[in-house]
Amino acid sequence: MMSSSAPTLFQSNLDEHLRLFHQLATLTPEVNEAGRRIAAALAQGGKLLLCGNGGSAADAQHIASELTGRFIHERRPLAGIALTTDSSALTCIGNDYAFDEVFARQLRALGRSGDVLIGISTSGHSANVVKAAQTAREMGIVFIGLLGRDGGALKPLSDVAIVVPSVVTARIQEAHLLIGHTLCGLIEHELGLA
Ligand SMILES: O=C(CO)[C@@H](O)[C@H](O)[C@H](O)[C@H](O)COP(=O)(O)O
Ligand SMILES: [Zn+2]
């Protein structure tokens, strides 16, 4: 038998989601700036790298695939790599060095000055994303923080910080997906591919 709380939970999640989404327009300048920085990097032969944990790892992969595959328009493939997908690299680096290093070490191997790294973290405090952001800055890689809560430790490390104004992880992730899709649209537009 279905629990009587099921419709109530969905309604309250929906209410919370809609309240948050009504506030997201305040992030328009940061989202536009992030789209411009990524498009400029791609136009110069750079690439977009992404990292995050759990649901944010899925978001990183999702956005990368919109670039290498396609988003809306039929166009050339674009350089997007999620640092979350290589289970051999993740387990080797995690096992032999530290889990905090799993993204930073891949970034040192694969990143180049002129690339952009998006770090996705709802708390802004995931240590492996923080290490990756610090490494990006050392390497001349633009760091875009796709964050939540108060932006955490990642906010001051971000060249562009997009901080979703919520303390609920799931709602923040829902907003991150909208922003990720918007970045893909902005990239296609800025590169004249739309
Ligand atoms: O998807 C969810 C929760 O909705 C989880 O997998 C969540 O992403 C994980 O707990 C992450 O480790 C949280 O990391 P962060 O967002 O604080 O950086
Ligand atoms: Zn989730």
UniProtKB/TrEMBL annotation:
KW Isomerase (keyword) present: yes
Primary location class: cytoplasm
Keyword Ribosomal protein: no
Binding-site positions, Zn(2+): 62, 66, 173, 181
UniProt cross-references to SUPFAM superfamilies, sorted A to Z: SIS domain (SSF53697)
Entry keywords, A to Z: Carbohydrate metabolism, Cytoplasm, Isomerase, Metal-binding, Zinc
Cofactor: Zn(2+)
Subcellular location: Cytoplasm
Pfam families, per database record: SIS_2
EC class: isomerase
SIS domain segment(s): 38-193
Binding-site list for substrate: 53-55, 66, 95-96, 121-123, 126, 173
Catalysed transformations (reactions): 2 D-sedoheptulose 7-phosphate = D-glycero-alpha-D-manno-heptose 7-phosphate + D-glycero-beta-D-manno-heptose 7-phosphate
Positions of transmembrane segments: none
EC assignment: 5.3.1.28
Gene Ontology molecular function, alphabetical: isomerase activity
Source organism, top-level taxon: Bacteria
Cofactor remark: Binds 1 zinc ion per subunit.
Pathway(s): Carbohydrate biosynthesis; D-glycero-D-manno-heptose 7-phosphate biosynthesis; D-glycero-alpha-D-manno-heptose 7-phosphate and D-glycero-beta-D-manno-heptose 7-phosphate from sedoheptulose 7-phosphate: step 1/1
HAMAP family: GmhA
Misc note: The reaction produces a racemic mixture of D-glycero-alpha-D-manno-heptose 7-phosphate and D-glycero-beta-D-manno-heptose 7-phosphate.
Family: Belongs to the SIS family. GmhA subfamily.
Quaternary state and interactors: Homotetramer.
Known function: Catalyzes the isomerization of sedoheptulose 7-phosphate in D-glycero-D-manno-heptose 7-phosphate.
Name under which the protein is recorded: Phosphoheptose isomerase
Species of origin: Ideonella oryzae
UniProt gene name: gmhA
